[in-house]
């Protein structure tokens, strides 16, 4: 795993919650197996993917039984093909079977997120535009999914409502104007970046004049986006421009080529499809 993609600080807590949710008072089915009977298993992927979630899967098995040994045949962020072996495991059979679902849930979900992010990021290669995620994440797994986006080659927008100011239509209405909303943000924002969602070129001009840092171009057509880039370039202090709304794999390249700095895509975390993985168990002699 690249050192530029640090693990989320709440990884242990996420794993603990997932195991508590699944195991509860105890795995009554695994209890049918003698406690120290050894077993082995292997995990394969049934489809191509970008692998992500190895630390989560590792922590899931180790939390159930520290004696479980995992030998990973791939690294975090690797591109794999269908039927490729990901990891072999050895240890008490009960532990292998108890931790299986939680470990694979993390691995398949985060691999699905990384795979989706990678597919969109690849479409931006050769441009100066970066792929951003959004706050449209699975509840309780935001840091994990945003980590997977980075593993897949994307970048994170705000982690939440606390680390960046994004002024939208309702905020503007409440403040009275874009200028008033930006001024209030500067006064109370503690130095956080200020982004304004704009719906037309007139609002973009207001965001520029107000001294915002970023303008989110919401549902702009390609011609309007090109006009926005040109207008922004003529400003004394140009903003960063983010395209958002209805972005698809078919449209993202053309949007990037208008010259915007960022494209945010909610579907890479909201519509994620888990990668199909399979764990095969056998008794160890």
What proportion of the residues is helical, as a percent range?
40-55%
Largest sheet features: 6 strands, parallel
Q: Overall 3D geometry? A: elongated
What's the overall average pLDDT, rounded? 95
The counted number of beta strands is: 12
Q: How would the blueprint of this fold be written?
A:
Blueprint: H1 11-23, E1 38-45, E2 49-50, H2 54-64, E3 69-72, E4 79-80, E5 84-92, H3 93-123, E6 130-132, H4 142-151, E7 165-167, H5 169-175, H6 178-188, E8 194-198, H7 201-210, E9 214-218, H8 222-233, E10 240-244, H9 252-256, E11 262-264, H10 267-270, E12 277-283
Helix pairs in contact: 1-2, 1-3, 2-3, 3-4, 5-6, 6-7, 7-8
Structure description:
- With 285 residues, this protein is α/β, with parallel strands linked by helices.
- It has helices at 11-23, 54-64, 93-123, 142-151, 169-175, 178-188, 201-210, 222-233, 252-256, 267-270; strands spanning 38-45, 49-50, 69-72, 79-80, 84-92, 130-132, 165-167, 194-198, 214-218, 240-244, 262-264, 277-283.
- The strands form 3 sheets. It has a 6-stranded parallel beta sheet with strand order 6-11-10-9-8-7. A 4-stranded antiparallel beta sheet has the order 3-5-1-12, covered by helices on one side.
- Helix 2 runs antiparallel to helix 3 (93-123) and helix 5 (169-175) crosses helix 6.
- The longest helix has 31 residues, at 93-123.
- 39% of the residues are buried.
In short:
By secondary structure, the chain is an alpha/beta fold. The protein has 10 helices and 12 strands. Helix 3 (93-123) crosses helix 4 and helix 7 runs parallel beside helix 8.
């Amino acid at each position: 795993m690249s050192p530029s993609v640090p693990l989320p600080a709440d990884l242990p807590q996420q794993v603990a919650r997932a195991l508590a949710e699944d195991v509860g008072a105890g795995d009554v089915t695994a209890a049918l197996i003698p406690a120290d009977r050894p077993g082995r298993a292997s995990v394969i992927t049934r489809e191509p993917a970008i692998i992500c979630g190895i630390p989560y899967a590792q922590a899931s098995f180790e939390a159930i039984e520290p004696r479980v040994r995992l030998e990973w045949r791939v690294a975090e962020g690797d591109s794999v093909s269908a039927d490729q072996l990901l990891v072999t495991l050895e240890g008490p059979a009960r532990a292998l079977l108890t931790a299986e679902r939680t470990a694979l849930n993390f691995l398949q979900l985060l691999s699905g997120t990384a795979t989706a992010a990678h597919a969109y990021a690849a479409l931006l290669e050769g441009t100066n535009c970066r792929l951003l995620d959004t706050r449209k994440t699975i509840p309780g797994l935001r840091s994990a999914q945003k980590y997977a986006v980075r593993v897949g080659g994307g970048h994170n927008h705000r982690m939440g409502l606390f680390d960046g100011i994004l002024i939208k239509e309702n905020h503007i209405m409440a403040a009275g104007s874009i200028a008033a909303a930006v001024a209030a943000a500067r006064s109370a924002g503690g130095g956080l970046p200020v982004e304004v969602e704009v719906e037309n070129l007139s609002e973009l001009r207001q965001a520029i004049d107000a001294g915002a840092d970023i303008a989110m171009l919401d549902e702009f057509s390609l011609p309007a986006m090109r006009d926005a880039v040109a207008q922004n370039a003529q400003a004394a202090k140009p903003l960063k421009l983010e395209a958002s709304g209805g972005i698809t794999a078919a449209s993202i390249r053309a949007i990037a080529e208008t010259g915007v700095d960022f494209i945010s895509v909610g579907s890479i975390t909201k519509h994620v499809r888990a990668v199909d993985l399979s764990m095969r168990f056998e008794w160890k002699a």
